[in-house]
Structures are given as C-alpha cells and as structure tokens.
Design a protein that fits this description.
about 350 residues; alpha/beta; seven-stranded parallel sheet; six-stranded parallel sheet; 12 helices; 13 strands; about 30% helix
Amino acid sequence: MKTRELIITPFLSGRGGTEKVLTTILNNSSQRHAHLLVLGGTKDKVWLHSVLADKVMIGPHGKIKQFLMLGKLLRTNQYDHVICMSTTIIMAVSVIRTLLGNHFSIISWIHFSLNQEKTVKVSRLKLADKHLAISLGIRQQLIDLGISEKIIKLVRNPIKWKSRTINKSVTKCIQLAFIGRITLDGQKNLKELFLALKGIHDYQVELHIYGVGEILKCQEFVRRISIHQKIIWHGWVKDPWTEVKELDAVILTSKYEGLPMVLLEAISYGIPVISADCPTGPRDIINKDNGLLYNPGNISELKQTILSMKTRSFSPRVIKGSIRQYYLPLFLKNFWSAIDQ
C-alpha cells in the first residue's frame, strides 16, 4: 500500500531553486501518494505547469482561511506524513493534529540557513517529529539547537543529469555568470562581486547576470565605483542555460544559503563554480574537482580566485561526476527512505 505525503510550503516566488526541487520530487514519485499544498500562494504560477495537475493545491488569501483549509484537508485525508517547509506551518499542523487526534508524523524541511533566517522560530521547529536537512551545515545547526541527531536525516537536493556540456571560454576574456535573485547588500551580496571586478585591471572580464530584483540599485553602484569590466544584464530568463554557450565559471557571493541549486545546475553542465564559503551548502557541493570556495568578505581572495579560472584546468566530465549523490534516482531513494525511517 502506498504511503500518503503532504508537502506544505509558505509563499513561493515561483522562480527559485525550491520550486525546481519540488517539481522534480513530485514528478518522480509514482510509487507514493505525494501532494503539494502551496499554502502561501505563489507569485509566478508558470512553474506549476510543469507539475502533474493532480499533485498541487493552492492555498487561499488570509491566515484564517489558510488555517481552515489546512484543517479540512488534514481531517479528510489519511496522510502518513506531513512535510512542513516553515516553522509557522509546523506550528499550525501541530495544533490541528492535537485537535483532530490524528497520528500522522510532522517533518520539517527547511531550505535555508536556520541561523540567518528571522522567520525560523526554534520553539516551533521542535514541534516536528523528524527533520530533513538539505546540507551538513543545516544538520549541524539543528544539532546545535538541541535536536537529537537520531531524528535528523541528511537528504540534500535533487538535480538531473545533463547530457549537454557547456565548455570553457576559448577567448582570453574571463566569462562569468551570476544566476539568481539580484540583491546588492542583501542575501545574494552582489556588492562583493562588483568590488572584486573593480580590482581586476590586467584581464578582461565579462559578467552575465540573469535574474530580477535590485537591478537599478546594482547598476547605480557599478557606475559609482567605475567598473570598466563588461556587465550584461539579461533580466529574468526562464532557462538561462539554453542561452549560455561557454563559461569559465558560475559565481555565487551569498551571505547565506540553504543548498544553492544554481551551483548544482552549473556543475551538472560541466561548468566550474566559485562561491563564498557561507552558511550553508556551498561547502557540501564544492570540491577540488568542480570549483573553488573563498572566504566571505575577502575581496582580494575573490579577485584572485576569479583570475585563476583561466589558468586552472577542470575536466567537464569530472565536474559532472563530482555530485553523484545529488542525481536521480539516488537522491529519491535517500529522500523517501529518510521519510519512512
């Protein structure tokens, strides 16, 4: 008999790595009765078109209506596991379980660094019966919060193997790409990348930026510090990998992450990556075979790391093979095993 799972998310933008993870899991769970409730709604619904229609429900506007919908859903369905992606959802599900006298397990599945995210409430987190950690860093954070190692399962995130390879640039110009939500001083911390580019004079660098957010703020900062390197602002592109012809590296300068999918995506195409060694995730992914870490805030080190990409030799085949534990179906086996244990 198939087990029944309900995954509940807070608001989603519709354009992030979490949406890709959910799509992959739901579309590859034919042996399970897995459903998704986007309780907080989603700004961009295009990603939902890629998910099997009978797998997804969208929550109403308003906290009271959302709570009532959730209560009805949990009362009328015999779920074995309810997987919660925020501590607010964990608390609501815990209250409903107590009121209904149900026996489903409550599982936390948080996709960002617990110590840096203000929405994480420890008291609510501890209401869960089990915790899925997407990175070793988050696993350690859970332990540091006093949660028993016995109920923490390391599951990582899934990525699909790509037959296509994006090769190193054949020109003297260093070709870089940033792909994600654009913030200058916030989480994605593009200010750090711009300051490193300002210090590069002997090489030409071409930076391709894909994403939306604080574009005007970033452009004004670039003008103010007089960066002479070429920066191309592509805006939102549904699948930037189809536009990229050659790259020397994909770069991430975040102050914190959970497990950055953009690094896994790049590696799956054979592209080396550069990332700040921020909490949490990059250290799980990056090794000597696929890229380089630098110390967050160290502009000089970031500059030298960028410059080294033309002289370092990375094998696209080896790069792709360096993240075997993240590829399907190994990920799915580990993920569902962690839930069932």
